Amino acid sequence: MRTRIIVFSLLMTGWLGHSRADDPLITGSISGRVVTIDGKPIPRAAVWCQDRQDVLLKTESDEQGRFQLGPIAVFKKTPTLTYPNRLTVWAETSELARDRIDQVAIFPGKTHDIGDLTLGAGTEITGRAVDQNGKPLTGASITIESHRYILGHTIDTNGPDWKLTTGADGVFATPPLPAGSVTIQLKASGRASTTTRKHVDARLGRVELGDLTLEPEVATAGIVVDKKSGKGVPEVSVFADYGYANAVTTDTEGRFQLKGLGGDAKTITLNSKSHFAPQPLPIEGDRLNLKLPIQQAFQIKGKVVDAETGELIDIAHAQLCQVRKGLDGATVLQG
Question: Coil, strand, or helix at residue 199?
Fold first, then answer.
Protein backbone atom coordinates (compact mmCIF):
# COMPACT_ATOMS: atom_id res chain seq x y z
CA MET A 1 0.00 0.00 0.00
CA ARG A 2 1.33 3.41 -0.97
CA THR A 3 1.35 6.10 1.71
CA ARG A 4 0.86 9.79 0.96
CA ILE A 5 2.14 12.65 3.07
CA ILE A 6 -0.01 15.78 3.03
CA VAL A 7 1.57 19.12 3.80
CA PHE A 8 -0.62 22.10 2.99
CA SER A 9 -0.66 25.90 2.90
CA LEU A 10 -3.45 28.00 4.35
CA LEU A 11 -4.13 30.86 6.74
CA MET A 12 -4.75 29.98 10.37
CA THR A 13 -7.96 32.01 10.22
CA GLY A 14 -9.80 29.85 7.69
CA TRP A 15 -9.89 26.77 5.50
CA LEU A 16 -9.78 25.98 1.82
CA GLY A 17 -12.77 24.26 0.25
CA HIS A 18 -13.25 22.39 -2.98
CA SER A 19 -14.03 24.77 -5.85
CA ARG A 20 -17.61 24.46 -7.08
CA ALA A 21 -16.41 25.47 -10.54
CA ASP A 22 -14.91 21.98 -10.87
CA ASP A 23 -18.12 20.13 -10.02
CA PRO A 24 -20.34 18.55 -12.70
CA LEU A 25 -23.84 19.91 -13.31
CA ILE A 26 -27.20 18.18 -13.45
CA THR A 27 -30.23 19.81 -15.10
CA GLY A 28 -33.94 19.27 -14.43
CA SER A 29 -37.20 21.10 -13.70
CA ILE A 30 -39.73 21.50 -10.86
CA SER A 31 -43.49 21.84 -11.20
CA GLY A 32 -46.40 22.13 -8.78
CA ARG A 33 -49.50 24.05 -7.78
CA VAL A 34 -50.02 26.95 -5.33
CA VAL A 35 -53.23 26.64 -3.32
CA THR A 36 -55.05 28.12 -0.31
CA ILE A 37 -55.56 26.13 2.89
CA ASP A 38 -58.95 24.98 1.55
CA GLY A 39 -57.38 23.73 -1.68
CA LYS A 40 -58.36 26.54 -4.05
CA PRO A 41 -55.77 27.41 -6.73
CA ILE A 42 -53.94 30.73 -6.36
CA PRO A 43 -53.22 32.53 -9.66
CA ARG A 44 -50.33 34.95 -10.13
CA ALA A 45 -48.47 33.83 -7.00
CA ALA A 46 -44.75 34.56 -6.99
CA VAL A 47 -42.80 31.28 -7.01
CA TRP A 48 -39.05 30.76 -6.79
CA CYS A 49 -36.45 28.16 -5.83
CA GLN A 50 -33.36 28.59 -3.69
CA ASP A 51 -30.08 26.73 -3.25
CA ARG A 52 -29.33 27.68 0.36
CA GLN A 53 -29.60 31.49 0.21
CA ASP A 54 -29.18 31.83 -3.56
CA VAL A 55 -32.34 32.40 -5.60
CA LEU A 56 -31.90 30.32 -8.77
CA LEU A 57 -35.09 30.95 -10.73
CA LYS A 58 -38.40 32.83 -10.42
CA THR A 59 -41.79 32.39 -12.06
CA GLU A 60 -45.52 33.04 -11.48
CA SER A 61 -48.40 30.60 -11.11
CA ASP A 62 -51.02 30.52 -13.86
CA GLU A 63 -54.82 30.84 -13.53
CA GLN A 64 -55.01 27.25 -12.24
CA GLY A 65 -52.24 27.88 -9.71
CA ARG A 66 -49.80 25.74 -11.73
CA PHE A 67 -46.13 26.65 -12.09
CA GLN A 68 -42.93 25.28 -13.57
CA LEU A 69 -39.37 26.19 -12.71
CA GLY A 70 -36.63 25.11 -15.05
CA PRO A 71 -34.52 23.92 -16.53
CA ILE A 72 -32.39 24.36 -13.40
CA ALA A 73 -28.69 23.52 -13.33
CA VAL A 74 -27.25 22.63 -9.91
CA PHE A 75 -23.96 21.21 -8.67
CA LYS A 76 -23.66 17.53 -7.86
CA LYS A 77 -21.00 16.48 -5.34
CA THR A 78 -19.99 13.29 -3.64
CA PRO A 79 -22.32 12.49 -0.70
CA THR A 80 -21.84 14.67 2.38
CA LEU A 81 -24.00 15.73 5.32
CA THR A 82 -25.82 18.18 3.03
CA TYR A 83 -27.40 17.68 -0.39
CA PRO A 84 -26.42 20.48 -2.78
CA ASN A 85 -28.69 19.08 -5.52
CA ARG A 86 -31.80 19.57 -3.35
CA LEU A 87 -33.57 22.91 -3.29
CA THR A 88 -36.25 24.83 -1.43
CA VAL A 89 -39.31 26.02 -3.40
CA TRP A 90 -41.09 29.15 -2.11
CA ALA A 91 -44.35 30.91 -3.00
CA GLU A 92 -46.12 34.05 -1.76
CA THR A 93 -48.78 36.61 -2.65
CA SER A 94 -49.51 40.14 -1.45
CA GLU A 95 -52.40 38.80 0.70
CA LEU A 96 -50.95 35.50 1.97
CA ALA A 97 -47.71 34.70 3.79
CA ARG A 98 -44.95 32.91 1.92
CA ASP A 99 -44.38 29.22 2.54
CA ARG A 100 -42.06 26.56 1.21
CA ILE A 101 -41.37 22.92 0.39
CA ASP A 102 -37.88 21.79 1.45
CA GLN A 103 -35.47 19.22 0.08
CA VAL A 104 -36.82 19.22 -3.48
CA ALA A 105 -34.58 17.00 -5.58
CA ILE A 106 -33.53 17.77 -9.15
CA PHE A 107 -33.72 14.72 -11.41
CA PRO A 108 -31.56 14.94 -14.56
CA GLY A 109 -33.65 15.49 -17.68
CA LYS A 110 -36.97 15.20 -15.80
CA THR A 111 -39.65 17.42 -14.26
CA HIS A 112 -40.25 16.77 -10.57
CA ASP A 113 -43.87 17.57 -9.63
CA ILE A 114 -43.96 18.47 -5.93
CA GLY A 115 -47.76 18.66 -5.67
CA ASP A 116 -49.51 21.46 -3.78
CA LEU A 117 -47.70 24.30 -2.04
CA THR A 118 -50.21 25.71 0.45
CA LEU A 119 -50.30 29.36 1.54
CA GLY A 120 -52.12 30.67 4.59
CA ALA A 121 -52.62 33.88 6.52
CA GLY A 122 -49.65 35.79 7.88
CA THR A 123 -48.93 38.63 10.29
CA GLU A 124 -48.74 42.27 9.17
CA ILE A 125 -46.45 44.53 11.22
CA THR A 126 -46.90 48.29 11.15
CA GLY A 127 -45.01 51.17 12.75
CA ARG A 128 -43.83 54.73 12.34
CA ALA A 129 -40.25 56.04 12.07
CA VAL A 130 -39.71 59.31 13.98
CA ASP A 131 -36.79 61.50 15.04
CA GLN A 132 -35.84 62.39 18.62
CA ASN A 133 -38.53 65.10 18.65
CA GLY A 134 -41.29 62.75 17.51
CA LYS A 135 -41.44 64.10 13.95
CA PRO A 136 -42.03 61.51 11.20
CA LEU A 137 -39.05 60.50 9.05
CA THR A 138 -39.81 60.32 5.34
CA GLY A 139 -37.86 57.87 3.18
CA ALA A 140 -36.37 55.82 6.01
CA SER A 141 -35.27 52.42 4.71
CA ILE A 142 -36.54 49.28 6.41
CA THR A 143 -35.16 45.74 6.13
CA ILE A 144 -37.22 42.83 7.45
CA GLU A 145 -35.62 39.46 8.13
CA SER A 146 -37.62 36.39 9.15
CA HIS A 147 -36.18 33.21 10.64
CA ARG A 148 -37.66 29.91 11.71
CA TYR A 149 -36.41 27.44 14.28
CA ILE A 150 -35.17 23.97 13.34
CA LEU A 151 -34.55 21.34 16.02
CA GLY A 152 -34.96 23.83 18.84
CA HIS A 153 -31.77 25.92 18.66
CA THR A 154 -30.93 25.98 14.93
CA ILE A 155 -32.45 28.69 12.74
CA ASP A 156 -32.88 29.21 9.00
CA THR A 157 -34.21 32.14 6.99
CA ASN A 158 -37.78 32.37 5.77
CA GLY A 159 -36.63 33.33 2.28
CA PRO A 160 -35.18 36.64 1.06
CA ASP A 161 -35.43 39.82 3.13
CA TRP A 162 -38.18 42.39 2.53
CA LYS A 163 -37.18 46.00 1.72
CA LEU A 164 -39.54 48.89 2.50
CA THR A 165 -39.47 52.71 2.65
CA THR A 166 -41.49 54.96 4.93
CA GLY A 167 -43.93 57.44 3.40
CA ALA A 168 -44.38 61.14 4.13
CA ASP A 169 -46.02 60.28 7.45
CA GLY A 170 -43.15 57.96 8.46
CA VAL A 171 -45.49 54.96 8.50
CA PHE A 172 -44.64 51.51 7.13
CA ALA A 173 -46.55 48.22 6.86
CA THR A 174 -45.04 44.82 6.07
CA PRO A 175 -46.59 42.23 3.77
CA PRO A 176 -48.10 39.19 5.53
CA LEU A 177 -45.18 37.52 7.29
CA PRO A 178 -44.80 33.77 7.93
CA ALA A 179 -44.52 32.39 11.44
CA GLY A 180 -41.10 32.87 12.98
CA SER A 181 -38.76 35.38 14.55
CA VAL A 182 -38.82 38.74 12.75
CA THR A 183 -36.05 41.35 12.86
CA ILE A 184 -36.89 44.87 11.62
CA GLN A 185 -34.05 47.34 11.05
CA LEU A 186 -34.69 51.02 10.30
CA LYS A 187 -32.09 53.35 8.77
CA ALA A 188 -32.14 57.02 7.77
CA SER A 189 -29.42 59.42 6.65
CA GLY A 190 -27.65 61.02 9.61
CA ARG A 191 -29.49 58.78 12.08
CA ALA A 192 -28.47 55.88 14.26
CA SER A 193 -30.13 52.73 12.97
CA THR A 194 -32.56 50.96 15.27
CA THR A 195 -33.59 47.31 15.40
CA THR A 196 -36.63 45.63 16.91
CA ARG A 197 -37.57 41.95 17.07
CA LYS A 198 -40.90 40.15 17.28
CA HIS A 199 -42.10 36.54 17.29
CA VAL A 200 -45.12 36.19 15.02
CA ASP A 201 -47.61 33.55 13.94
CA ALA A 202 -50.84 33.53 11.96
CA ARG A 203 -52.98 34.00 15.09
CA LEU A 204 -51.67 37.53 15.64
CA GLY A 205 -53.00 38.91 12.34
CA ARG A 206 -51.64 42.40 12.89
CA VAL A 207 -48.96 43.85 15.20
CA GLU A 208 -48.64 47.58 15.93
CA LEU A 209 -45.13 48.70 16.91
CA GLY A 210 -46.02 52.35 17.39
CA ASP A 211 -43.28 54.99 17.08
CA LEU A 212 -39.69 53.83 16.49
CA THR A 213 -37.18 56.59 17.27
CA LEU A 214 -33.99 57.08 15.25
CA GLU A 215 -31.58 59.26 17.25
CA PRO A 216 -28.88 61.40 15.57
CA GLU A 217 -25.87 59.26 14.67
CA VAL A 218 -22.55 59.59 16.50
CA ALA A 219 -19.63 59.82 14.07
CA THR A 220 -17.18 56.92 14.47
CA ALA A 221 -13.91 56.66 12.51
CA GLY A 222 -10.32 55.56 12.91
CA ILE A 223 -7.54 53.38 11.61
CA VAL A 224 -6.72 49.67 11.84
CA VAL A 225 -2.99 49.08 12.38
CA ASP A 226 -0.70 46.07 12.39
CA LYS A 227 0.00 45.24 16.03
CA LYS A 228 3.73 44.81 15.40
CA SER A 229 4.64 47.41 12.75
CA GLY A 230 2.00 50.03 13.56
CA LYS A 231 1.23 50.45 9.85
CA GLY A 232 -2.32 50.75 8.54
CA VAL A 233 -3.89 47.50 7.32
CA PRO A 234 -6.12 47.68 4.18
CA GLU A 235 -9.11 45.47 3.31
CA VAL A 236 -10.19 44.82 6.90
CA SER A 237 -13.92 44.37 7.53
CA VAL A 238 -15.08 46.60 10.41
CA PHE A 239 -18.44 46.62 12.20
CA ALA A 240 -19.78 47.68 15.59
CA ASP A 241 -21.51 45.36 18.09
CA TYR A 242 -23.68 42.91 16.09
CA GLY A 243 -24.00 45.10 13.00
CA TYR A 244 -22.21 42.70 10.64
CA ALA A 245 -24.66 43.60 7.88
CA ASN A 246 -23.37 47.21 8.07
CA ALA A 247 -19.67 46.36 7.88
CA VAL A 248 -17.27 48.68 6.05
CA THR A 249 -13.80 47.95 4.64
CA THR A 250 -10.62 49.85 5.49
CA ASP A 251 -8.99 51.82 2.66
CA THR A 252 -5.40 51.48 1.42
CA GLU A 253 -4.17 53.32 4.54
CA GLY A 254 -6.25 51.25 6.94
CA ARG A 255 -8.77 54.00 7.66
CA PHE A 256 -12.52 53.50 8.09
CA GLN A 257 -15.70 55.37 8.95
CA LEU A 258 -18.82 53.78 10.42
CA LYS A 259 -22.24 55.32 9.86
CA GLY A 260 -25.56 54.83 11.58
CA LEU A 261 -24.13 54.27 15.08
CA GLY A 262 -25.63 55.63 18.27
CA GLY A 263 -23.84 56.68 21.43
CA ASP A 264 -24.49 53.25 22.96
CA ALA A 265 -22.19 51.33 20.57
CA LYS A 266 -19.73 49.35 22.71
CA THR A 267 -17.38 47.20 20.62
CA ILE A 268 -15.84 46.89 17.14
CA THR A 269 -15.14 43.58 15.43
CA LEU A 270 -12.36 43.20 12.84
CA ASN A 271 -12.15 40.50 10.14
CA SER A 272 -9.34 40.09 7.62
CA LYS A 273 -7.78 37.50 5.32
CA SER A 274 -4.25 38.53 6.32
CA HIS A 275 -4.75 39.50 10.00
CA PHE A 276 -6.97 38.61 12.95
CA ALA A 277 -8.29 40.10 16.18
CA PRO A 278 -9.06 37.38 18.77
CA GLN A 279 -12.02 39.28 20.21
CA PRO A 280 -14.06 42.48 19.68
CA LEU A 281 -12.28 45.69 20.70
CA PRO A 282 -13.92 48.23 23.05
CA ILE A 283 -14.89 51.66 21.71
CA GLU A 284 -12.97 54.00 23.99
CA GLY A 285 -11.77 57.59 23.87
CA ASP A 286 -12.11 59.87 20.84
CA ARG A 287 -14.61 58.17 18.52
CA LEU A 288 -13.29 60.09 15.51
CA ASN A 289 -9.71 58.87 15.99
CA LEU A 290 -9.89 55.25 17.05
CA LYS A 291 -6.69 53.23 16.69
CA LEU A 292 -7.43 49.52 16.51
CA PRO A 293 -4.55 46.96 16.56
CA ILE A 294 -4.81 43.72 14.63
CA GLN A 295 -2.37 40.81 14.56
CA GLN A 296 -0.88 39.31 11.42
CA ALA A 297 -2.20 35.83 10.70
CA PHE A 298 0.08 32.83 10.88
CA GLN A 299 0.65 30.70 7.80
CA ILE A 300 1.42 27.04 7.29
CA LYS A 301 3.22 26.55 3.99
CA GLY A 302 4.07 23.35 2.27
CA LYS A 303 3.20 20.88 -0.49
CA VAL A 304 1.68 17.46 -0.99
CA VAL A 305 4.05 14.73 -2.09
CA ASP A 306 4.00 10.98 -2.60
CA ALA A 307 5.86 9.38 0.35
CA GLU A 308 7.63 6.88 -1.89
CA THR A 309 8.43 8.84 -5.06
CA GLY A 310 8.54 12.41 -3.77
CA GLU A 311 6.37 13.52 -6.68
CA LEU A 312 3.95 16.42 -6.20
CA ILE A 313 0.29 15.41 -5.79
CA ASP A 314 -2.71 17.53 -6.74
CA ILE A 315 -5.29 17.79 -3.95
CA ALA A 316 -8.88 18.98 -4.18
CA HIS A 317 -9.36 19.88 -0.51
CA ALA A 318 -7.25 20.95 2.48
CA GLN A 319 -8.61 21.74 5.93
CA LEU A 320 -6.98 22.93 9.13
CA CYS A 321 -7.62 20.54 12.01
CA GLN A 322 -6.68 20.12 15.65
CA VAL A 323 -5.14 16.75 16.44
CA ARG A 324 -5.74 15.13 19.83
CA LYS A 325 -5.82 11.68 21.34
CA GLY A 326 -9.03 10.21 22.70
CA LEU A 327 -9.34 8.27 25.96
CA ASP A 328 -8.83 5.04 24.03
CA GLY A 329 -5.59 6.34 22.51
CA ALA A 330 -7.06 6.85 19.05
CA THR A 331 -6.11 10.00 17.10
CA VAL A 332 -9.00 12.37 16.57
CA LEU A 333 -9.13 15.28 14.11
CA GLN A 334 -11.29 18.27 15.01
CA GLY A 335 -12.16 21.16 12.70
Answer: strand
The model's pLDDT over 90-105, given as tens digits with 9 standing for 90+, comes to: 999 999 999 999 999 8
Instruction: Give the 3-state DSSP-derived string for 124-188, with helices as H, strands as E and coil as C.
Output: EEEEEEECCCCCECCCCEEEEEEEEEECCCEEEECCCCEEEECCCCCEEECCCECCEEEEEEEEC
Alpha helices, DSSP H, located in 225-319? none
Please report the pLDDT score of residue 6 as a whole number: 42
pTM over 0.90: no
Q: What domains can you pick out in the chain, each with its CATH number?
A: 4-11+300-334 (no CATH), 20-119 (2.60.40.10), 124-213 (2.60.40.10), 220-296 (2.60.40.1120)
Helices (H) and strands (E) in the chain, counts: 0, 29
CB 217 within 8 A of CB 261: yes
The whole-angstrom separation of Cα 90 and Cα 84 is 17
Q: How far is CA 197 from the centre of its chain?
A: 17
